[in-house]
């Protein structure tokens, strides 16, 4: 049926409408004769009128085509089309009255008034029925995006009116803070209170919320957006019509396309379900709580309702930002938030924090992660990533922490840079502790690049585009694994819940993404064209700048490519060899001596000796 309707041209559809309207004439006339008190039976009177009906239908067809009624689309059938329908019905009734008066049977004038009214209502009801049928057919053939409109004012109602004729979007309801509007029905949609959003999302299968309140202040809109995003909803804000026509600046209010749009695959949704019980009613500490991964860890752990959430962060600004974001939400659900300004490289402070707050779960996200910066500053990078992890892990074991989960990186696999090597050493430390810990479960989660995190390529490309380009790519052959922040954090929490000790968890992230292709997509998504040899008049060019120190063409997820399935189909466990306790003690001793003497060369030699692949791999080598 969908294919049949789609194949019809506009002219063919107009013929269908005209044929239906013609067929409704005898039906409306029969209905009129039935409801009117006439001396003869309705069918007998209708039979007497058959000689004049063809002329009535001919006049109706001519007047309808002349007025353009059959050309009105079902989704555009509104007040103007209703007026046209009334005009056609009246003209048809007048012609019928004249012909029956001349040729019989002569009917009371009231009969023709009832006919005109009936015929108009029949045409309107038929179009309303057809509209609902076509919508149902289209929805079954191609699922529509159901949206909730926040704001039932002028902008919201005009938006709902416009979306009703859209092929892929279905407005489901309004929500509005104005109590006088709640309970009303505007443009066919009911207005609800914001407190019922969660209920509406589930009952009406909402996919997205459209914020249609441009007259509100930016802080007010930001509060609404944060609240909606806290419910796990995708939110889009609509500019005012004054902005659209140029009365107000619009460009400054536009935001770049979210990095998640460039994932190149369907994002994985890994709801915690029973895994949330590993964090509920517990004291959870997140190190690096102000970073991209750390702050998302805090958000999702907060939804698990721990008794206390300890935010451990080195950066004052990052700690202030994440604390301000979470404080109100935590207060609403009765979770205590404790912001702590500190560093994991301070053993005494780490021990004090764990003991004072009775920490039961540690999510260790604190790390120096930017490859070129750590490559240029190897000793601080090693001190933070290796010895910071050792301090926090050993103190956790001594404090009787239940679970310790390390956030690792795919760069830890046969690393060509100090950052990756430091993460691999942190993994080895944890694997060694796991073999000797009877109380604390030590585990780690290894994943690729996180889209949208600080220093990742998409925000960098968008910043370069905003400055007019060029967009810089290290090498045309470079590929990387990507995942969203939500995916990464869901994986960490899922894996941490099912860990038994010493595992290296990885996620099925699909195929690696070409950075060159990613750069093209970011340019095009910003509304610009690529400037290259085939299009010298384009807007933004891509410049190849060469691999930076420590970078390689492609990353890997495991050392052996041996993956063991887990309870979740998208989570795997890597089977890899570990160092003995004596070997771990040897590399820790050598690394500590190098840092104490400030000898970068000696530190790199320690990495080369103990980290598989470091210092021996050609960065141009392609990996599987």
Average pLDDT level? 83
**Over all CA atoms, what is the radius of gyration?**
34 Å
Query: What would you call the shape?
Result: elongated
**Helix proportion:** 40-55%
| First-last Cα distance | 47 Å
Strand order of the largest sheet: 9-8-7-10-11-12-17-22-21
Count of β-strands: 22
Beta-strand content estimate: 5-15%
Protein model, in words:
The structure is a single chain. The protein is of the alpha/beta class and 624 residues long. The chain contains 21 helices and 22 strands. A nine-stranded mixed beta sheet has the order 9-8-7-10-11-12-17-22-21, with helices on both faces. It has a six-stranded mixed beta sheet with strand order 3-4-2-1-5-6, sandwiched between helices. The longest helix is centred in the N-terminal third of the chain and has 33 residues, at 109-141. Mean pLDDT is 83; it is low at 247-254 and 617-624.
Keywords summarizing the entry:
624 residues; 21 helices; six-stranded mixed sheet; alpha/beta; single chain; 22 strands
List the helices and strands and how they pair.
Elements: H1 2-7, H2 10-35, H3 42-48, H4 53-67, H5 79-103, H6 109-141, E1 145-150, H7 154-163, E2 169-175, E3 185-186, E4 189-192, H8 197-203, E5 208-211, H9 218-230, E6 235-237, H10 241-244, E7 283-287, H11 292-303, E8 308-313, H12 316-333, E9 336-341, H13 347-357, E10 361-364, H14 371-376, H15 378-398, E11 403-407, H16 418-436, E12 441-446, E13 449-450, H17 457-466, E14 471-473, E15 479-480, E16 482-483, H18 485-498, E17 504-507, E18 513-514, H19 515-525, E19 530-531, E20 540-544, E21 563-565, E22 571-574, H20 581-597, H21 600-610
Parallel strand pairs: 1-2, 1-5, 2-4, 5-6, 7-8, 7-10, 8-9, 10-11, 11-12, 12-17, 13-16, 14-20, 19-20
Antiparallel strand pairs: 3-4, 15-18, 17-22, 21-22
Helix pairs in contact: 2-3, 2-4, 2-6, 4-5, 5-6, 11-18, 13-15, 15-16, 17-19, 20-21
């Amino acid at each position: 049926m969908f294919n049949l309707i789609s194949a019809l041209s506009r002219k063919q559809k107009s013929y269908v409408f005209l044929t239906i309207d013609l067929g409704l004439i005898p039906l409306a006339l029969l209905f009129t004769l039935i409801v009117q008190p006439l001396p003869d039976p309705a069918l007998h009177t209708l039979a007497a009128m058959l000689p004049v009906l063809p002329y009535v239908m001919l006049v109706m067809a001519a007047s309808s085509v002349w007025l353009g009624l059959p050309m009105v689309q079902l989704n555009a059938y509104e007040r103007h089309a209703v007026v046209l329908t009334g005009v056609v019905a009246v003209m048809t009734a007048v012609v019928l009255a004249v012909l029956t008066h001349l040729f019989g049977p002569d009917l009371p004038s009231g009969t023709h008034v009832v006919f005109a009214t009936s015929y108009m209502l029949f045409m309107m009801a038929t179009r309303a029925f057809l509209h609902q049928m076509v919508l149902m057919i289209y929805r079954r053939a191609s699922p529509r995006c159901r949206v909730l409109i926040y704001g039932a004012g002028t902008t919201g109602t005009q938006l709902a009116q416009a979306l009703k004729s859209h092929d892929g979007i279905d407005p489901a309801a309004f929500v509005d803070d104005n109590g006088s509007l709640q309970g009303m029905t505007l443009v066919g949609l009911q207005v609800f209170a914001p407190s019922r959003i969660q209920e509406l999302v589930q009952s009406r299968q909402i996919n997205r919320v459209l914020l249609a309140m441009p007259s509100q202040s930016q802080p007010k809109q930001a509060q609404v957006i944060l609240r909606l995003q806290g419910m796990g909803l995708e939110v889009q804000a609509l500019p005012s019509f004054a902005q659209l026509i140029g009365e107000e600046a619009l460009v400054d209010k536009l935001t770049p396309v979210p990095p998640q749009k460039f994932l190149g695959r369907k994002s994985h949704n890994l709801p915690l379900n029973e895994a949330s019980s590993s964090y509920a009613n517990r004291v959870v500490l997140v190190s690096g709580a102000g970073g991209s991964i750390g702050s998302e860890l805090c958000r999702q752990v907060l939804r698990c309702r721990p008794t206390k959430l300890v935010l451990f962060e080195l950066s004052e600004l990052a700690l202030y930002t994440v604390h301000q974001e979470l404080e109100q939400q935590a207060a609403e659900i009765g979770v205590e938030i404790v912001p702590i300004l500190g560093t994991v490289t301070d053993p005494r402070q780490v021990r004090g924090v764990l003991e004072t707050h009775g920490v039961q779960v540690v999510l260790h996200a604190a790390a120096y992660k930017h490859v070129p910066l750590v490559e240029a500053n190897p000793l601080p990078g090693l001190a933070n990533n290796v010895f910071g992890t050792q301090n926090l892990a050993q103190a956790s074991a001594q404090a009787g922490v239940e679970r310790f989960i390390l956030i690792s990186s795919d760069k830890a696999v046969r690393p060509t840079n100090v950052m990756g090597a430091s993460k691999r050493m942190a993994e080895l430390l944890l694997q060694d502790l796991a073999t000797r810990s009877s109380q604390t479960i030590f585990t780690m989660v290894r994943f690729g690049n996180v889209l949208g995190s600080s220093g990742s390529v998409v925000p960098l490309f968008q910043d370069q585009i905003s400055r007019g380009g060029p967009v810089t790519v290290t090498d045309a052959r470079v590929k990387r694994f990507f995942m969203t922040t939500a995916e990464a954090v869901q994986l960490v929490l899922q894996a941490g819940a099912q860990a038994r000790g010493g595992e290296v968890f990885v996620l099925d992230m699909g195929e690696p993404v070409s950075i060159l292709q990613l750069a093209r997509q970011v340019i095009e998504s910003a509304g610009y064209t690529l400037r290259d040899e085939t299009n010298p008049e384009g807007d933004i060019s891509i410049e190849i700048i060469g691999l930076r120190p420590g970078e390689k063409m492609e990353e890997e997820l495991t050392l052996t490519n041996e993956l063991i399935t887990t309870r979740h189909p998208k989570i795997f466990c890597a089977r890899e060899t570990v160092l003995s306790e004596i070997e771990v003690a040897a590399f820790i001793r050598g690394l500590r001596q190098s840092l104490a003497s400030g000898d970068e060369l000696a530190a790199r030699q320690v990495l080369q000796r103990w980290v598989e692949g470091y210092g021996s791999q050609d960065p141009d080598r392609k990996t599987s």
